Amino acid sequence: MTIYLNKDSKIIVQGITGGMGSKHTNLMLQADSNIVGGVNARKAGTTVELNGKELPVFGTVKEAMEATGADVSVAFVPPAFTKDACIEAIDAEIPLLVVITEGVPVQDSAEVFAYLQGKKTRMIGPNCPGIISPEESLAGITPHTIAGKGPVGLVSKSGTLTYQMMYELRDFGFSTAIGIGGDPIIGTTHIDALEAFENDPETKAIVMIGEIGGDAEERAAAYIKDNVTKPVVGYVAGFTAPEGKTMGHAGAIVSGSSGTAQAKKEALEAVGVKVGKTPSETAALMREILQSL
């Protein structure tokens, strides 16, 4: 089993004709993703050839869904147009929308988040590597060659740490790895992914990667305590970050002791989650658990 994405998922790409869109559509096709078309209002009715496959370009997400039966959209749209692209996909009721774009204004993300409430679309991102169910499908930019299928579920705020953790545990493999993005406002949270992994019979253990800033990891710890029966190991990026300084990701803002890596580590450890001080140590903790299952 996988969460949110599997080999039957039919994917369209918003912004398929752009540089990033075409490059990563090529890579998704190499990962055996079932890409069925793309969206670009200015190039509707044309086709693009990528990885030896001719893909139709539609004017809207709704038209693409009607013509292809698509149930996933991956958005590679410049930041200025991301809000409109998201709202278009939500209005079309696409079940899964993966927003890769970095640098989306927080005001726009807030408006999209508010618009999502009560709708039929699940959004992942923005500013994320997307989601991969190894050997089945990739919706995003995660390199598909890092790791194969296995019992580990991975949810991470950081793209590069997603890749590192997949590489470290490649001998075990993953059910699904989901990069939720590091922005202050995102569609799918650690808690959403934890719930899905808890309900997935083939995910036996979960790795959760957070980072300094905000209180998402503390809330996830409270959720794990009450709802998650599977073993969880964690890593929090930013143990060496100076206090009061905004680091990298827009969401990584620490105020006082709230939001520090240490505070998050303590919150997770208090509910029985083992937390590594480095990604490699975290992988070693997971390895011990997997060997004992």
UniProtKB/TrEMBL annotation:
InterPro entries: Cit_synth/succinyl-CoA_lig_AS (IPR017440), Citrt_syn/SCS-alpha_CS (IPR033847), CoA-bd (IPR003781), CoA_lig_alpha (IPR005810), NAD(P)-bd_dom_sf (IPR036291), SUCC_ACL_C (IPR005811), Succinyl-CoA_synth-like (IPR016102). The gene is sucD. The lineage of its organism: Bacteria, Bacillati, Actinomycetota, Actinomycetes, Propionibacteriales. Its EC number is 6.2.1.5. It comes from Nocardioides oceani. It comes from the Bacteria. Succinyl-CoA synthetase functions in the citric acid cycle (TCA), coupling the hydrolysis of succinyl-CoA to the synthesis of either ATP or GTP and thus represents the only step of substrate-level phosphorylation in the TCA. The alpha subunit of the enzyme binds the substrates coenzyme A and phosphate, while succinate binding and nucleotide specificity is provided by the beta subunit. The keyword Ion transport does not apply. This is Succinate--CoA ligase [ADP-forming] subunit alpha. Heterotetramer of two alpha and two beta subunits. CoA binds at residues 17-20, 43, 100-102. SUPFAM superfamilies: NAD(P)-binding Rossmann-fold domains, Succinyl-CoA synthetase domains. Substrate binds at residue 163.
